[in-house]
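Researcher: Going back to the complex we discussed earlier. I've cleaned up the inputs and rechecked each line, so this should be the final set. Can you rerun the prediction on the complete assembly and write out the structure?
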Amino acid sequence: MKLSVVGSGPGRAEGMTGAARAALAACDLICGYTAYIDLVRPSFPDKRYFSTAMKSEVERCRAALKFAESQNVAMVCSGDAGVYGMAGLLYELWEPSGPVTLEIIAGVTAAQSGAALLGAPLMQDYAVISLSDLLVDWDVIEKRLHGAGMGDFAVVLYNPGSKKRTGHLQRACDILLQYRGGDTLCGVAENIGRDGETARLMPLSQLRDFSAGMFCTVFIGNGKTVELGGKMITLRGYEAKR
Amino acid sequence: MKLSVVGSGPGRAEGMTGAARAALAACDLICGYTAYIDLVRPSFPDKRYFSTAMKSEVERCRAALKFAESQNVAMVCSGDAGVYGMAGLLYELWEPSGPVTLEIIAGVTAAQSGAALLGAPLMQDYAVISLSDLLVDWDVIEKRLHGAGMGDFAVVLYNPGSKKRTGHLQRACDILLQYRGGDTLCGVAENIGRDGETARLMPLSQLRDFSAGMFCTVFIGNGKTVELGGKMITLRGYEAKR
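Model: Rerun complete. Updated structure for the full complex:
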């Protein structure tokens, strides 16, 4: 049978692609982290669901693959399943010669939905970095931040902080402050596509002291990022051609 | 009136979000580059359209903003309008105190749709770089490639080549080969979500001699990227925890 790994987009049902919606409508069972299940349940109230807690990703993926031996299953992830989601782990646990077909259905990740909320901060090259060190050593994350700073990338930070994990955003800003000024324009998108959706702009010097929770996605401008009409815009280069 | 800047996703209508579809259904006029218009016209055959050629982006955006003074307009971009699309330029040309409201509706960009096609190559931090030097000097692009190499980012290359612009992919690979081995797993996604959709895997040493056209998106793995079941997977780090 088939296991469809579905990115459900930023939040509300309208952020979901037609392909994602079709996969959820067609499957027999929807699996996922409880909070993501809650986002799709209103659209598919009559489906069967299997939900697991956060941090039990291996268990959740093993269960979904087992279920998919005898029924069509959708594993739902917020945003895109291929960006810090379950797509990779499912491939790791999947048996290519076994009875389950695996397909990934792309969704709108927070880099894109947050950018749309803030303006157009990713009009030039950008780097996406997670500040969670649960699965990656902090020194690797620091190396990435240095690479992003050196390359003058616009930067999107996922998982900038949580109750247990504080200080990471400040350390990330301090590294980027070695490469760009404290007045570099930054933005924080919170609860994208959900109740309490908020967009804030602030300079990098202020971002370092900002308390960003787990529903925040952080955008750090590069040398071409400006504020226009209250929005965060990274100039693509057309102004130089005009 | 309103100008909605709509990312239509990778190609077929099923790659479009519900919000994008709703904006196109609600507007009076759909503007865009001819090739992108052709992708949405089958879904909205009765709409009025205004299409312009490639490279006339400033003209296209000025016209859309002018039209939006008296009617509701949607500007359609393939993928996501905030990634090398029209979102930034429209903000540059927009008059915040004028009669036009500007909104960006996020779409699935080729980094995500191509990744889903190839497997799960972006499960760790990644950098998105365009190899087009039409608007950005090549030395800036080289600096970004060095930053991505130094940071061990998985790399997504947009605009890897065209008939007029050859040799850029080879130069990009040669820079990354200073930081990672020739056996680094890479992938090329072509015509994502369209007729002729193709996914190819190859080592970095072979990618440097690959002729990538303008409908290709190129993925270069990092130190954690492996081939599993014929797919390109960047390991997230769960295997170290198990």
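Model: Worth noting: The longest helix of chain B spans residues 138-150.
Researcher: Good, that matches what I expected from the previous run.
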